[in-house]
Amino acid sequence: MPRVQYTDSDVALMARMMRAEAEGEGKLGMLMVGNVIVNRRIANCLDFEGLRTIPQVIFQIQGGNYSFEAVQKGNVFYNRARGVEKRLAKQTLDYWRQHPSKFALWYFNPYAPCPPTWYDQPFSGQFKQHCYYEPKANTCEGAYMG
């Protein structure tokens, strides 16, 4: 049983986002970004309350901007999904989870050492250039499910 229900168009959309956000970090980096997308869909708390579909997660607007920089700035995001990224997206939708993104709801590339918190949420680890953050204990039980 998949972690969340999804359609073929969800797979393609997620594949485009994973590539746009982490192509330079290889397949594992793209899987980690995909995991954050699925975690946000599952969490239903904090900034991600009420998100019920993959498109809602990817096109979410916070503070007047898209949550994912690639939607707003990235021309790679607007390219067609390729087979390799579609397979990776499907993997994260179906089962894939790994530290440091296992429970992460946020990631970013600080172009410097990872700060110990991000918007008051604890650092869970780093993969290549991306720093991952999961919710503080007792603030988002949904993030630790699925």
Automatic annotation (TrEMBL):
Pfam families associated with the record: Hydrolase_2
Entry keyword Zinc: no
All copies of domain Cell wall hydrolase SleB, residue ranges: 24-133
MF annotations from Gene Ontology: hydrolase activity
InterPro entries: Cell_wall_hydrolase_SleB, SleB_dom1
Keyword Hydrolase found: yes
Listed name of the protein: Cell wall hydrolase
